[in-house]
Design a protein that fits this description.
alpha/beta; TIM Barrel; eight-stranded parallel sheet; 18 helices; about 15% strand
Length: about 550
């Protein structure tokens, strides 16, 4: 594939609300982020993804945007943003903004005008559809539960479409006026503000069948079908929309884009992320898509390391001859991976380092989520009232309706909730972990006295210091060619909980082995251990790794 400036980069996602508060109101802000840029630079970060900071009512924590060209006062001012961007660029890093254009907020002026006059010109930018015999137009189910259709006030048989919350009406991408507005806004951020690209949210959802014919009911059993089924059905149509977007905005400018693109298949992949694709990269969601086949949290038992291994290696194979994936174990929608995928006895620093080795050597652009580099584990929520994510409340009620006790429902939702990744970043061992001088907007992690940046920076054996070593290894000129563009060849360890693969280029072969099982694992290998964690040995033509151990080996 064509080599681009973003290949070989290390990315880091910041969830602004929870990263660093500078004014004591308990909510992270732009000045707080600016104050921590030296930390990110020292970690080895090249590319920062900033989750939404636009004006928003906050129904979906900023992913419901009411004004795309202004900063929400809770995060600061546009001047604060300019200072942040200046600081990022001064340190040789780049910044990409979250772009949420499948939908907006119901408080956006465009939608408010459309809602007031569904026959007016603004209404064409959304989906207003007549119901059938007083019922919604079809049986699609929102990603957040319930119908995707909401009645228009004052109209007996008219509905508007929302794939997410009812306060997040979907844009109609068949409308040229809508596309023109979005392109103008994006070019303003690129040209006038000088950002380096976008992470593009839920973007495959823009392709919809305007007939809304209804789809076969799925496993939920209530006659409805997830909106994801429509997205999968229309996947081949999305590139027609998205290449036009690319050609009018980030494409000619050489900006970096990474798409949140669910429902991809091998046929559409080249058009989405190939050399002539819609985006520079897309997140590999193979593991997440396997989880989301379940109808709700109540049906999702705790996955294990073997589940993560299978999905991850399947994703590596899927993108091998197509494009350059963005690889993740965590983001603002994912639980903390150490607690989610690993056994209880590995739910700590050793397991976190083992998982880091397996993740950071994969082909693609590693996206580290804030706190992941510390080995953050799950937060223990004491009661459902401590949740802040609207999905958590819906799923809690679903669990109760399926016969779970309150304690069982709390345990299950706590395992899966998006709130797990949204608790504050842990900077030090003070009462509020150095995140704020006030009261945090969401529960603080129970182990912040011992699990924090200050402590881990002082400990050469910490998870944070191990991440630094992994990043330095990926960037080492001796190995960067192989670790950036080399293929990923999966190995069979005869143990589903042991992940092993080889990164192979024309000149090098680098073995990665991470043992998440409760038994030692051995692989035929000769060469030199470049980096390891836990008890590993390379002798007599074999690499052995104890439970919770991992090694990166330059094969001879």
């Amino acid at each position: 594939m064509k080599k681009q400036w973003w290949h070989g980069k290390i990315a880091y996602q910041i969830y602004p609300r929870s990263f660093q508060d500078s004014n004591g109101d308990g909510i992270g802000d732009l000045k707080g982020i600016t104050s921590r840029l030296d930390y990110l630079k020292a970690l080895g970060i090249d590319l920062i993804w900033l989750s939404p900071v636009y004006v928003s009512p906050g129904v979906d924590n900023g992913y419901d945007i009411a004004d795309y060209r202004n900063i929400d006062p809770k995060f600061g001012t546009m001047e604060d943003f300019d200072e942040l961007l200046k600081g990022v660029h001064a340190r040789g890093m780049q910044l990409i903004m979250d772009l949420v254009v499948n939908h907006c907020s119901s408080q956006h002026p465009l939608f408010k005008k459309a809602l007031a006059d569904p026959e007016g010109p603004e209404a064409a930018c959304f989906y207003f559809v007549k119901g059938k015999n007083g019922l919604p137009p079809d049986n699609l189910r929102s990603y957040f539960g319930g119908s995707v259709w909401e009645k228009v006030p004052g109209r007996d048989n008219l509905f508007y479409l929302h794939y997410f919350a009812k306060e997040q009406p979907d844009f109609n991408w068949n409308c040229k006026a809508l596309r023109d507005r979005v392109c103008a806004m994006m070019n303003w951020w690129l040209d006038e503000k000088g950002i380096d690209g976008f992470r593009i949210d839920a973007i495959m959802n823009v392709a919809k069948d305007p007939a809304f014919p209804g789809l076969p009911p799925d496993a939920l059993g209530d006659g409805t079908c997830s909106a994801a089924a429509m997205t999968a059905k229309m996947a081949c149509k999305a590139p027609l929309i998205l290449k036009d977007l690319r050609d009018r905005t980030y494409g000619p400018r050489g900006a970096f884009t990474v798409g949140e693109a669910f429902g991809l298949n091998p046929q559409v992949l080249p058009d989405i992320c190939g050399d002539d694709g819609c985006f520079s990269s897309v997140f590999d969601f193979t593991v997440r898509e396997n989880l989301e086949k379940k109808p709700g949290y109540y049906a999702c038992e705790k996955p294990d390391a073997a589940f993560w291994r299978r999905g991850t290696l399947k994703g590596q194979a899927l993108y091998a001859d197509v494009g350059f994936p963005a690889v993740i174990t965590e983001n603002h929608d994912e639980p903390r991976a150490v607690s989610f995928y690993l056994r209880k006895d590995l739910e700590g620093p050793q397991g976190a380092k083992c998982l880091a080795a397996a993740f950071m050597m994969l082909r693609g652009i590693p996206f580290i989520y804030q706190g992941q580099e510390l080995g953050m584990t799950k937060t223990e929520f004491a009661d459902q009232s401590e949740f802040r994510d609207l999905v958590a409340f819906t799923e809690y009620e679903k669990c109760l309706s399926r016969g779970m006790t309150k304690a069982q429902a709390l345990e299950r939702v706590s395992l899966h909730t998006r709130d797990q990744s949204r608790t504050p970043m842990l900077w030090d061992d003070s009462d509020t972990a150095g995140f704020t001088t006030g009261t945090p907007w969401i529960r603080l992690h129970q182990d912040h006295r011992t699990l924090n940046v200050k402590k881990e920076l002082a400990d050469p054996g910490s998870v944070l210091c191990f991440y630094k070593k992994l990043i330095a290894l990926r960037k080492d000129p001796q190995y960067s060619e192989c670790l950036t563009w080399g293929r990923t060849l999966a190995l069979d360890c005869k143990n589903e909980a042991c992940m092993a693969y080889v990164r192979q280029s024309a000149k090098q072969r680098i073995l990665v082995c991470a043992n998440f099982s409760d038994k030692p694992c051995a692989l035929a290998a000769q060469g030199e251990i470049l980096l390891k964690t836990g008890e590993t040995a390379l002798e007599n033509g074999a690499l052995t790794a104890a439970p919770g151990a991992a090694a990166v080996v330059l094969l001879s």
